[in-house]
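worker-3 :: picked Lipoprotein
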Amino acid sequence: MSCDGRARTQVPSGAMYRWTRFVFSLVSFLLFACGSGPAPLDAAIADAGTDALVIPDAGGDPLAIACVAPVHGDMVLGSAGDPIHFVAALGDPAAITSVRIEGEAVTPDAFGLVSRDLVAREGIQSVEVAITLEDGTERTELCSFAVAPRYADASEPLDGTVLVQLGDEAIRGEGGTSPDATSLSDVVRTAASTSVAARGIAIGLPAGPQTPPSCEPECSSAYVTRITYTGSRIVGDAMLSSTTGDGGRIVINGVVPRIELDVAIDAMVAFEVPVSGTGTVSIVDVMVYAELEITEVGGELALVTVRSDLLGGGVTASLTGIADEMNRLEAEFATEQEVERGDALSIRAELAGGLADAVSTLLDEVVGGATPEGPSTRVLPAIASGASAPIEIETVVRASEVSPELLVLRVATRYDAPGRGGGGGAPTRTSRGAPIFALASALPVETETPAAIAVSGAVLSQALHAHWLAGGLEGVVAPDMVVAPDMVVAPDMVVAPDMVVAPDMIRFTSALPVIAQLGAAGALSIATSFEATFAGPAPYGTSTTVRVAAIADARLTGTGADPTIVVDRLSELRVSVPAGASESDRRTLRSYAAILAHHVATFSTGDAMPALPFVGLVVPEAITIDGASVATGFAAGTRLSVADADVSLVGSQFVIAGDLVATTP
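worker-3 :: tokens ->
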């Protein structure tokens, strides 16, 4: 070839496709040598690299059309508006009179390549290549590929896709207006009440020697100069209860029959005689009162004792080690006086055996238990009759944000196919990841309800990608399993499924996952691209293969964590036309393709879609206090979650907002 583009050597048409990497490298070399320089690499080609382009061997078939760059089923890294230099290869350019890419006439080069500069759109983009042979035979092919600014590795959790938001009413209030509403304070109060009843209380004693305030200038004949508390005991069964106080505080009160304190004292008796001794101080009929509050400490929720007192009760002291009886009695009197001055000596009632810490641990477990540990497997139906597609789902709490009025948990999600990479049940596809559009992280919700959960639209992409990766869009489909409404609305046509001749058998395959995108105004679009090989009565024959690309407009209905996505219409439908098909055959193929596209969109976002991960907080059945397991009063598997309400599409995320309720399996 010379630099004016005219071929000096004829190449047999049957050899066109056999010139793979060498041919394309030669073309690149000639372009560079002729001084034009390499063309700017677009989103599709730059992503793979020019050397990676491989032209398939079509054996000189004049009807052959191959997608070269991007290849059919490619996942292109790019954004809407990016340039894409599309390249296709023809089987025998000499037998072709015209070629059109997206309706625009193009001319094959000497190597049977045709190209056109296009503009990328995010989601699934399909390019139609149409050829007309010398005998008038027409043939079209669809080259479909995904375009996304980011792809999420299916083996790694994607951060921030779910957000759990609890307001002040769900933390310290009543959790909402419904009869079943609850709050974190209610949970802790129940756990604290159960635990206190089981473990009683402990007495908080000041550490080290305590020096009472000076009694000068009016000291009594006996007074304590220093007292050290070395131990405490509760004698008898405490009668305690737990209630909810103002501002959601947890109030514990009751009566303790007797408290004994071990003491060591230094005292002054008869105004001038110093004495020392050890002994026991007894306090009877003690009123116990404590107030605890859930609050933010160091960026985390914690249970804090805001008030704790021992009230009332008669005090007696019994000391040993003092020789003089008078001195002993006066020392006992002085000790009793100082103990009665409890405020000065900081004697306080505390929750049993570090219960405050234990209940704070309960909070940690509730917050940290927002997700199950490790992945869980869900067996979803595949599009093939009687087949299944197992996927793994994992949710992980990545971070928590606490303010005085708000608790926010940020959760990562992972959707993958088990056994990926080989072995039994391995998926039939490999992939660069789930396509992610716009912001993957869920955003805080503006709501007046006590609790809310937001789920990013990226979760839909993860779930649909995992289902496809697990082989969920492969296999033989029985026509009677294809579900469609009474009417399928598509561009320039309304299809009544009962009026369309159906094939006897469909072999289904998809080079791309179904891609669902949430629009800024709550719109939901579902893009599909698949290949179907039909067998049956005319126009299907023994084997007729078409490629289909469609976009369905959908909406959300239903309640709870498993809403229903309803497909209203197909806003785009593209179908490749087999060579030699009559106009009537084309209409039948296009009509059945519309029915099948509607079914794929509905099936993928319905039966094959796991429930959205509206994460709940798991309440432990027991907590550990002083090394012993103590029941919290909640049944195993109890979860705190948002009450069933209508799921809405707000911006580019799913939102459920309502009361906080406790549910059991």
